[in-house]
Amino acid sequence: MKSSDNINPKLSLELYVYEENFFEKHHITDLSQLTPYLSATKKFWLNVVSLDNELLSGIADIFGIHALAIDDIVNSQQRPKLEEFENSLLLVAKMLYTKSDISRIQAEQVSFIIGKNYLISIQEEDFDLFDGVRTRLENPAGKMRKMGPDYLAYTLMDAIIDEYFLLLEKLYDKTEQLEDLIMADHHKSLLSTIYKHRKSMQEIKKVIWPTREILSAWKKSESIFLKKKTLPYVNNIYEHTVEIIENLEMQRESITTLVEIYMTNISLKQNEVMKTLTIIATIFIPLTFIAGVYGMNFEYMPELQWKYAYLSTWAIFIIATGGMVYYFKKKKWF
Amino acid sequence: MKSSDNINPKLSLELYVYEENFFEKHHITDLSQLTPYLSATKKFWLNVVSLDNELLSGIADIFGIHALAIDDIVNSQQRPKLEEFENSLLLVAKMLYTKSDISRIQAEQVSFIIGKNYLISIQEEDFDLFDGVRTRLENPAGKMRKMGPDYLAYTLMDAIIDEYFLLLEKLYDKTEQLEDLIMADHHKSLLSTIYKHRKSMQEIKKVIWPTREILSAWKKSESIFLKKKTLPYVNNIYEHTVEIIENLEMQRESITTLVEIYMTNISLKQNEVMKTLTIIATIFIPLTFIAGVYGMNFEYMPELQWKYAYLSTWAIFIIATGGMVYYFKKKKWF
Amino acid sequence: MKSSDNINPKLSLELYVYEENFFEKHHITDLSQLTPYLSATKKFWLNVVSLDNELLSGIADIFGIHALAIDDIVNSQQRPKLEEFENSLLLVAKMLYTKSDISRIQAEQVSFIIGKNYLISIQEEDFDLFDGVRTRLENPAGKMRKMGPDYLAYTLMDAIIDEYFLLLEKLYDKTEQLEDLIMADHHKSLLSTIYKHRKSMQEIKKVIWPTREILSAWKKSESIFLKKKTLPYVNNIYEHTVEIIENLEMQRESITTLVEIYMTNISLKQNEVMKTLTIIATIFIPLTFIAGVYGMNFEYMPELQWKYAYLSTWAIFIIATGGMVYYFKKKKWF
Amino acid sequence: MKSSDNINPKLSLELYVYEENFFEKHHITDLSQLTPYLSATKKFWLNVVSLDNELLSGIADIFGIHALAIDDIVNSQQRPKLEEFENSLLLVAKMLYTKSDISRIQAEQVSFIIGKNYLISIQEEDFDLFDGVRTRLENPAGKMRKMGPDYLAYTLMDAIIDEYFLLLEKLYDKTEQLEDLIMADHHKSLLSTIYKHRKSMQEIKKVIWPTREILSAWKKSESIFLKKKTLPYVNNIYEHTVEIIENLEMQRESITTLVEIYMTNISLKQNEVMKTLTIIATIFIPLTFIAGVYGMNFEYMPELQWKYAYLSTWAIFIIATGGMVYYFKKKKWF
Amino acid sequence: MKSSDNINPKLSLELYVYEENFFEKHHITDLSQLTPYLSATKKFWLNVVSLDNELLSGIADIFGIHALAIDDIVNSQQRPKLEEFENSLLLVAKMLYTKSDISRIQAEQVSFIIGKNYLISIQEEDFDLFDGVRTRLENPAGKMRKMGPDYLAYTLMDAIIDEYFLLLEKLYDKTEQLEDLIMADHHKSLLSTIYKHRKSMQEIKKVIWPTREILSAWKKSESIFLKKKTLPYVNNIYEHTVEIIENLEMQRESITTLVEIYMTNISLKQNEVMKTLTIIATIFIPLTFIAGVYGMNFEYMPELQWKYAYLSTWAIFIIATGGMVYYFKKKKWF
């Protein structure tokens, strides 16, 4: 067995020994203190706040934990996983939290080793997340003392997942904030109506999907409370849910196409506006230029004295306009 | 057993006791009144209109229902689920309804606990949704009395799902309304033709998909009415349906690409319009400026007296135009 | 048994009784006429052209068909399905057809009940779709008389699915028509090249996908004609098909990105055109205004007499232009 | 047995009879010549270049092939499939080829019937695709003579699939050509960088996906060469591949969003350019009009003589400008 | 057995013979040197740096490796795969690396043949990738010598996959670089906020997905450390994770729609800007032209002397404007 002398002296592990009618809390300063509990009949929870490889290897030696499990625990970039080893079971979870802004989500790895009569939890920093669990463990009336170390692992996982919901709430707030910002400009427009309509469909889908699942589960269930005779009826409403889902999907697709058409419509209208502008500008800008030329005050402009100059100019105006109109007609602009 | 003294006195539970030839309705005001029915041979339905934790825990104690089931019932944010416990089966469903506008869909949780000879239904508020079921239960000729509590649960679920169809109809109305609004502008356009074409394909797909499924089911069925000898033939038409689906998918993809090309086409045309405008404006606006300059009435404008001023101005006009045309040619604008 | 007195007198059911060497056609006007055939050894086909609930319930009583099956048949909004009951098998199919335009697809529900020695087909209106099947049944040399009622059901399904192909052809025509319309404008453009390229890939995929499937089926097949020794070789070409599919997918993704880039490119070019126009217009329009001001013919315009007015105006022109150019440079417009 | 007198006289079937140490090639002109080989111990390959229904039915009669198999072979619109019948196995494949341009892919159906000691291959036109296989069959040292008819079918399928790779290469060439065309315009732009980045990710994914699959296969493999003890380690690297795939997906999504932002950015900039133009034009065009009015040379224009006309005009200019600026401010255009 | 005389003389294979307490390294120059190790009890690793078909066929003959395995090894375009043969197991992997730029990813095929007591690794070029494994093999205290050849294959695969992570890091750098480039322009804009929000959701999803998986694994696990009694609780938090995922998906969809609305909004605003410009320009450009006409200095312009010419011109101005306004109103432009 590995000597635990060289363990960081500042380190102190929390050990909770418990049974239905028993509860003790110890501060472990030397790993050899753990050995007596191993074969004991009492259950215990060892909480380690450190990713120190040496320390964890020491613990692994005592409990016969596979080396790969320790590797997974120490590597804090691990994705959540559950792995079964011969003598124990490894569960790597991630705690998510934000310190201030939702755009900075931080992850903390929390690992659990579940053995026959023990749970070892390993985290990098001490969070107050598990305080509630500690309190419940101290309470002799609670369920936790009666149940095994896997139930303890469950309550700790539960605490972690409850934290996710807090995050989800913050995300919701941000989404709503974005929604307000974007919808502010055109809260009465067609697009916002479509948006709300889509949301209604989402909400129905959110209910109808799991409903289909439970009816499917009913069909397959072998529970004695569900008789075979009822199955054709259940199958009937199961198919109703399938039908509703199909219809929702069809409507969703229709609406997507409608939005596409709406957007193309905007482009088409913009094109029409552009054409109007271009036609008017293209016809009159050159004409205005010609008028401008003969508005110049040069002393020597021979055309000014010509008798039919003015008439000719109007002829030019009319011919130029006619040419332009013909050109635009050919281009099918109007 | 928990004392039921502190149960909200305003509360009254409806209890329906029934058998093929028996029907009774009771108002339960004290939970202890329930005990006699537990071991009885008669079936009963207990309808609870309350999410009061204490009340439900009291009921759970009497029927031996798992504490987690009560948690799920009380938490009205639960998603629909079916969970099997040792002594009973929990089914959490959601009723959906709108009071006026389809954009405000409201959800009401309805939970069912199915036991050996009982059904407990729990809802938050009293809806008239179950009235039809009550009437059918009172009818001695109906099927419901002969069947077990799971059949009763089925009929209640059926009532809930029928409500979904009402919602679906409202959604349809809204979708059609949106369709009318958007298509109004260009009901003869190419896009509306494409939209209708897509809808036709959707409708065919809606029929052909389940047809494929039933032929697949036929192939796998072990029903005595379906002989093995017919299988190769069934397989043959099964493959026809597969082929039709593949072809529909290919056409759908083609049409998506066509719409894309159509939209790009609009952009390209808009670009062309823009170029025409820009070329005309860019050439003539500076020229018009120059003409404007020599149309000014200042007394001291030396150029006005120059002999070749007018000619030079025309030279400038022509050179500027040539430069512009060269520039646009180089940019490949025309 | 239900009295059939109140059956619609106009109703006449077609009954075909057949065996390898026997064929008879009856017109049933009273349901009691059906009873003798039930336990007979001969096979028969009953064709019902009605969704009348009462009539169908009467038939159901005679044949012992589950009430839910009748519900499914009568509800003409049913999606296609296959359901096994104790005494029979229900198959609900949909016939699709168009009267004129492909954009109006109509669906007709056709249901089949397959029993030990009978087939009941139920449709709402009489179509000539099944005429071919009747002719084949009358032909003593045909296969149909030898086979059971499930084979008869297959031939009827076959007739329905053949109808789908007619629809598919009409859809194709419409798709091609749309293609012609959209591609007309730019049949030599890059986009049409991409479109054709994509179609080529689709066509290859259409062949390679089922090829992969059949090689996969070969690998798993337990046919005595396929020896185990050949398997590694088959696996080899199976992997070739997988590779081809992967490559096609990669190319498809590349092309999607290319189209995206192409479209962004158009936007970028349009932006450049816009900028040119804006720069020219923004510089010269204000200058032209100033020139216009001093082209006014008011009698009392003091600036006109100033000696350096003309020079100052040019100074203003140059300064304004410089300012504009500086502003556009700062905005990085050129 | 069907008389083969009416077989097309021009038709000649190729028959290859072979065994490990035996090879003979016959030209069959009458189907009755085939019968002796049926029960023989030698293996043979019959190559039919015709989709003539009568001929194929004749062959089917001799070999006891199911009529549906012949239907599938004759219908050249069949999708590839593998179907097992009692006496034989049908494999329908498609040969793909292009005569010149990749945009015109042509498909040729090739069907195989595999029996106990024979292979029948049916194609519509004679291609030189199978020449290589014939040569290998003539070679006494080759493996092909030792193996059964299914191995022969494999080699023919191999030849067909090799042809697909040629097509794939042509598609690649076309894709690259398109890439060059589109990227030509902006080979240094951000978009082309993104395009290359995406391609890198695709290439990695192409390797990492099957790597994950093989590690998954290792985990599930029951090969004696893979010991159970190594499994946790393999699982470890399996999870690494999963992690890499997840990260690639996350990056891919990020880049899609980035491109979206980039394109929106272009739109926003275009909007800004448009606004600048519109503000300048909207302010100065009306002013220029007013200046133009008072530049007209009518003899009777009373305003021209007014003393404060010029000043008033400037007042109008300033007020109009102010009004415009106020309007644009209110519209939040700048 | 094949003679190995004609093997490339420059070729030298590395052979590592090892056992728990034994390690030897040989340079093989003749394939016949390999035979003694085949039936030996010691384990060995043969590293081949060559894709020479002849050499590999020689090795295959000695070890009884299937010819298809050699085909797969030599064909360096193979996708990664695992294939089981009678006497051995083939694993084809790909090493990925970049020499400089991430946009040029290169792939090197590395194949492994795992036999009873040997591992043969085949690569095309010698990389220093396996140096670490060699060092660990030389170390007598290491685990590698105790384990079989499959463990050795695992460590080599591990080295290859570690290399992927390096690539991934480079990809990340490039993605971040692109992000910086694109976001630079509008780091405070709404779009960048949405982008960050989406990233937060991605990060949560990255944790919550595997968490759901491990809870699902817990539910199905048959480990003795996980008691049945805890299952309902685990199921409870499992459903929480499902709910979180559903909510994230719903939010993601909402945000996608929001971005769509935002982009449509930009188009709509651009349209409005365009309309303003077009209205102003279309009204005033023709008017300015008319004013310009009467600003011309021709000597013979009869209108100039008319008494009501000026008034009439104003009348024309007003009528033209009115007509335009009416036209735009009819077009619903404002």
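Chain A is about 55% helix and 15% strand.
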